[in-house]
Amino acid sequence: MHPKHIAATLSNPFAKNRLYYEPKGVCLIIAPWNYPFQLTMSPLISAIAAGNCCIVKPSELSPATSKIVSKIIAEAFTEKEVACFEGNADISTALLALPFDHIFFTGSTAIGKVVMEAAAKNLTSVTLELGGKSPTIIDKDVNLEKSAEKIAWGKLINSGQTCIAPDYLFVHEQQHDEFIRLYKAAASKMFFKTETKIDHHVYGKIISHKHYERLKNLVDEAVENGARIDWGGHFEEQDQTIYPVILSKVTSESKVMEEEIFGPILPVITYQNIEEVIEQINAKSKPLALYIFSKSSKAIKHIIKNTSAGGTCVNDVLIHISNPKLPFGGVNGSGIGSSHGFYGFKNFSHERAIMFQRRIDFNKIIYPPYVGKEWVLKMLKKIM
Questions:
Q1: Could you tell me where in the chain the CATH 3.40.605.10 domains are found?
Q2: Which of the two residues, 297 and 14, has the higher pLDDT score?
Q3: Who's near 205: CB < 8 A, 6+ residues apart?
Q4: Residues 331-379: pLDDT tens digits?
């Protein structure tokens, strides 16, 4: 990329200033299993565009896709340019012990901490695309049918195994029952063959038995703590399939409200005023995404101003990541750094500031000794 011209300042008015984008060096990309091709290739494209060499570690939970990714990389690059290492977590652990120039990780917050700890030993910079509990707020004034349809799609696509999927939802207490009816209707239309049978062509399985059991336990534990299943609750262990679940009357102490769900389970919480919604959102870690459905620009601005999230989408879900001109990333527990488009390029680049001093140089006036230079101080005070 061509150096970027930077304007001079009064402190050095005749200097020429440039910003150079340099490759960071050798980068490690650790990819997840939920969108294994996209979430491997997208950061790899950014890294290559910035001039880096890369080692790629695809997920062992999606081995078929990992083989395809490895084959593409082997055909397109030499091992000195990009190398792909398949295998289990031991491979990742071994790679993390190496002194990379940058590490790009996509996955859970828990593993993100492990990656960051390993990177700290070599003072390696990191990009962490993590997750969290992304809330959805439905204002009382919206078209509830359209909102329910969008939310059902965003929640249930990939069986809820999407880092920015709506995790839990707030709806006005007077609209609770109607929302559930409309959500069920929309989900059934999109993901069911019959009234009671899921369509496996458009609705996937849970990635592993371990994750299947984790999700089932979340529902069981929530019910034990007083939650009510308003829809769903059908589990097919042999196929690792969980039908869409709606939970109401969920307590804040339930695990389903404490950890990222990453599955087709939607806790629905009722509210009376927006302030209590904002308070509950701010009581949790900053989410990767926040979804607001409202016709009121005043309400939308108020919610945005009084909350924090990696990204926010108004009157829709998920699609904010489709614009490469917007940065994608989290805040604190939901992620560090940004990706997509130019932001991805910057993430894999070192921004090197360079100043070219001209022959005309007034900087000597600030050199010592300072006796007799009181006029310099007066001049600087006027300028400042």
A1: 25-129
A2: 297
A3: 159, 239, 240, 241
A4: 999 999 999 999 999 999 999 999 999 887 777 777 888 787 778 778 7
pTM for the full model?
A: 0.93
Q: What is the 3-state secondary structure (H, E, C) of the chain?
A: CCCEEECCCCCCCCCEEEEEEEECCEEEEECCCCCCCHHHHHHHHHHHHCCCEEEEECCCCCHHHHHHHHHHHHHHCCCCCEEECCCCHHHHHHHHCCCCCEEEEECCHHHHHHHHHHHHHCCCEEEEECCCCCEEEECCCCCHHHHHHHHHHHHHHHHHCCCCCCCEEEEEHHHHHHHHHHHHHHHHHHHECCCCCECCCCCCCCCCHHHHHHHHHHHHHHHHCCCEEEECCCEECCCCEECCEEEECCCCCCHHHCCCCCCCEEEEEEECCHHHHHHHHHCCCCCCEEEEECCCHHHHHHHHHCCCCCEEEECCCCHHHHCCCCCECCCHHHEECCECHHHHHHHCEEEEEEEECCCCCCHHHHCCCCCCCHHHHHHHHHHC
Active site residue 27: no
User: Where in the sequence of the chain do the CATH 3.40.309.10 domains occur?
Assistant: 135-322
Instruction: Specify whether 163 is catalytic.
Output: yes
| Tokens linked to 100 | 């990379």
- For the structural domain made of 25-129, what CATH number should be given? 3.40.605.10
Q: Of these residues, 27, 54, 84, 163, which one is catalytic? A: 163
Per residue in 153-162, pLDDT (tens digit) is 999 999 999 9
What CATH number does domain 135-322 carry, 3.40.50.1820, 3.40.50.2300, 3.90.1300.10, 3.40.309.10? 3.40.309.10
Give me the catalytic one of 129, 149, 260, 313: 129
Distance CA 74, CA 58 (A): 14
pLDDT on residue 380:
73
